[in-house]
Amino acid sequence: MQEMAGLDEGAPLFVQIAERLADEIADGGLVEGEQVPSTNELAAYYRINPATAAKGINMLTDDGLLEKRRGIGMFVAAGARDRLLAERRRRFAERYVEPLVAEASRLGIGADELAAMIRESSYVRGGAL
Amino acid sequence: MTPAISVAGLSRRYRGQLALDDVSFDLEPGSITGLLGRNGAGKTTLMRVVAGHEFASAGTVTVLGARPVENEQVLRQMVFVREDQTYPDFRVRQVVQAASWFYPNWSHQLAGALLDEFNLPLDRKVRKLSRGMRSAVGNVIGLAARAEVTLFDEPYAGLDPVSRQLFYDRLLADYAEHPRTVLLSTHLIDEAAGLFERVLVIDRGRIVLNTAADNLRGAATSVTGPAIAVAEFTAGRPVWVRRRIASQESAVVAGAMDETDRARAAALHLHLEPLTLQQLVVHVAGTPVGSLEERTSA
């Protein structure tokens, strides 16, 4: 497998490109008003077809997360980070909390015990929460 | 828009052997397409007919809107780099020079940079070069020609992985700046997978798959784990192939997996792994044509 900077086989490449950029915006690696890499830069970095990279950028533009400044390039839109974080909180509940609760109930772990385990885990990791 | 390459009802027969059987497809200008298939499937014959090196037994081929055979205007806009390319008894420098005279969009700058990066000895005779170096000469010409239609047939026989990576990187970079229509055949499918916008799979002279490369990502998934759990998970899904050892089973299932599927697989202690493009082509090549549409659209 050619090294494609961590892209995998599971989803269309343009979707993965869009997700990577969205993650960077949510994590603050790309701040609002900042210029995002060009299609050709993304294509060279990920070693993918430029049209595929362009499709990923277009996905974020259609969602209003990026905006085009004619003749200059693509920029992170105002409010993009807040919108992404709200979406992530929703997905967090779905992806992590629900399966966690389901497995806990299968193992007979009650809500208080589960909360204690989470606090313990946070403590071990130096008070991450 | 006029397709860069248009093939309709193309057949090519060699003494009763049908090398190409009713092949039809269009390639839009400005795209990179992978031509994939087994040895002897018809990849080289197809490229040769498109390049005007060979006549069609039936059907038509147009390149940039015109027939390519003995059509200088088309041939100057098309470069064909073959796996078994032979050159007259010339030095590398002379071969590259001759190519620069033929192709109107030739980039001396790119050719110079590539000759340097591939470490090609300019004053050595091409026939004295190693197989890999001969392939590199072909790659330099194929890229520096900047031809509107660029055909690469297994362009890196004998090339080491470092040089192949160099080829992919330079192809992408130059293609980004100077878009053109690229048709590239390869057996190293996973290596080249990221380059392709479209994929053509040919098997026994027939096109068995013609689709956007992104349609194939996640098109099938291998499900591995306890046989009972695999059976439960795959019930009601199209299964391409099953393999079993003792109580463990591995099944290839068509269709994309969503969050619910993944959660269910995790609960059943199953391992999900999307098929790579190469694995998909192995499944697709060599199966009856009729079943393919359902397979990829499933």
Give the key terms.
heterodimer; A: 129 residues; mainly alpha; Arc Repressor Mutant, subunit A; 2 domains; two-stranded antiparallel ribbon; 5 helices; 59% helix; elongated; B: 298 residues; alpha/beta; Rossmann fold; Alpha-Beta Plaits; 6-stranded mixed sheet; 4-stranded antiparallel sheet; 12 helices
Low-confidence stretches of chain B: 288-298
**What is the highest CATH level, the class of the largest domain in chain A?**
Mainly Alpha
By DSSP, the count of extended strands of chain A is: 2
What is the succession of H and E elements of chain A? HHHEEHH
CATH architecture descriptor name of the largest domain in chain A: Orthogonal Bundle
What is the total number of structural domains of chain B?
Answer: 2
Strand content of chain A: 5-15%
CATH superfamily of the largest domain in chain B: P-loop containing nucleotide triphosphate hydrolases
Average per-residue pLDDT of chain A, rounded, comes to: 90
- Rg value of chain A: 19 Å
Q: How much of the polypeptide of chain B forms β-strand, as a percent range?
A: 25-35%
Major β-sheet annotation of chain B: 6 strands, mixed
**Global outline of chain A:** elongated
Output mean pLDDT of chain B. 91
State the helicity of chain A in percent bands.
55-70%
Strand order of the largest sheet of chain A: 1-2
Question: Mind explaining what this structure looks like?
Answer:
The complex is a heterodimer of chains A (129) and B (298). With 129 residues, chain A is mostly helical. Chain A has five helices and two strands. With 298 residues, chain B is an alpha/beta fold. Chain B folds into two domains: 5-215, Rossmann fold, CATH 3.40.50.300; 218-297, Alpha-Beta Plaits. Helices cover 35% and strands 29% of the residues of chain B. In chain B, the strands form three sheets. Chain B has a six-stranded mixed β-sheet, sandwiched between helices. A four-stranded antiparallel β-sheet of chain B has the order 11-12-10-13. In chain B, α4 (108-117) packs antiparallel against α5 (131-144). Mean pLDDT of chain B is 91; it is low at 288-298. The A-B interface holds A 1-2, 4, 7-14, 39-40, 43-44, 46-52, 55, 94-95, 99, 102 and B 30-32, 165, 168-169, 172-173, 175-177, 179, 190-197, 213-215, 217-218, 256-257, 259, 263, 266-267, 274-277.
